[in-house]
């Protein structure tokens, strides 16, 4: 332990001592104090809630005991006088029934005189009739008889069973009743010894209990923030709610539940209170905030002391120690700013003077060592990145440009999905370097996971045969071990450092012709240099067509396609093929500009050179191109996410779907893309190269031309189908854009 401590830095030892002897003890004491206070505050808060619940339980227990005795007294007094009067009301004789009702009312009111909370005394007869003293109960007999306490009273004759009612509205249980009353029901079923007539099935006392008022008061005060007792309710043993003034579910996380049980009818009722833990612990939170504030103040004072001590002594000494370690490792490019106490500043001045004396002796030696360690692979990488020049490399490594060389580009179309592209790229390079000829003659630089630049040194005159063999071995090994296919673009043979930059620039430019070949093609760019140069030059003219296909802009696509078809009709067959190849290259370049995969369109990459040259005539070329473009348009439309697309792209797609609507307007399209009308028209004109009105008119006339060529619809029918209600206006616009009328256009087709 002592040895380990001796190897620690001065600052580490200071922090270790400061944390272990000051910070940790203070944190432990603070945490223990807060935990004890939290427990104490929580216990006190829960005790307050339990006392409130005890008041409710006491009120309920007293009412249940007193009213159970009063019900028994009412039934058994004066030799079951009340039961006899109640049974006497069960008659069809109106006079006799009235007489017994008067006697029952007089005897019942006399017995109930001291008790003001009794709502009603109800006698339920076995034949379905019922008699009330005081108030009539609004519940149906069937509803009351289905209750557990009613059935329990039937099963236990001459025993009092207790039930409850929770009123949900005014006059809910009886006329004059209020909302949220807790009404106790005391039921007794007399046997033959009590009711010799055997007409009375059940006698029920309905009494309003003050426990409900207490719960209602507690809940209202809690809602207004005047107490911290929570929302209180009474539930049965099976979890059913007996009384509640709130529409409460089981509380979510963040609540504390306090429960007090009470025995009723041989089972338990539970008085539950749900209180937000944050409210329950509010006093603790305030006290804890003060304690934490004091602790933070103490820590700030300790931190200020530590900062002063570190700045004046510890850090200057540590910088000197780090400086000495750097000098020991050979790093002399450093200077320590003097600071701290006087003795420490003197040490820093002496250290800086020593470093200055050593630096002059070491610089020359270090430069010679560093220049000798530069490898050809690193030099090639720096050449490609533009971090050095061929002349500088030739000066350091005379053998670099000693032989003739060929620059190549290895281009991966798609990687498998099991690993990342970078992992597969590293695996490919490792496989290349296991090939003896590649390891002996090639230097490789990974420009990206899908593009590798290779410097191949040639020493024989006829190098192509051996180069082809090596490339075939590399492609076979990559396909076998990694499941990866890659194309190779082979540049022309170069000599000396003067041709390097031009050869690299030419290779990068001409690599775009790979879109015309299969994914594993070996393309010798020098073999068809003139043809490749013309294809690349032509491809620049088809950028607008490629852009229209990429964003699925049908109007621009159809305009550009017609231009292409018109041009192809005037070219010789060989030149027409070059223009088609140029279009394919332009499309491939546009897709890869956004990191897309050109091969994803058709799920593989074809040899378009072979495919196009097999077509018989210009008509076949145009038909093939039409199908080819349609496939790309469908692919782009399926991939395009209109929610994330540019506003002008969304507007063009909206126009394509609604151009046939006569009332289509700039305001409607601007609203669809969510832009101000004036801003939208300026943005559309700037990005589309024409006004909104011109674009819409061109799209409609373009669709009309297609229908004139391919359908037999009348001119006025086509006019309506492309959004023109007025045929004369349609004819004028068609002739303005095409130079001839629709009828004349159809004849020419």
Mean pLDDT: 82
Write down the Rg: 49 Å
Helix % is 55-70%
Largest sheet: 5 strands, antiparallel
Proportion of residues in β-strands: 5-15%
- Kindly give the count of domains: 5
Write up what this structure looks like.
The structure is a single chain. The chain is of the alpha+beta class and 749 residues long. The chain folds into 5 domains: 239 residues, no CATH class; 89 residues, no CATH class; 145 residues, Alpha-Beta Plaits; 107 residues, no CATH class; 109 residues, Orthogonal Bundle (Arc Repressor Mutant, subunit A). The strands form 3 sheets. The chain has a 5-stranded antiparallel beta sheet with strand order 2-1-5-4-3, with helices on both faces. Strands 11-12-10-13-14 form a 5-stranded mixed beta sheet, sandwiched between helices. The chain has a 4-stranded antiparallel beta sheet with strand order 7-6-9-8. A hairpin with a 5-residue loop joins strand 6 and strand 7. The longest helix is centred in the N-terminal third of the chain and has 79 residues. 28% of the residues are buried.
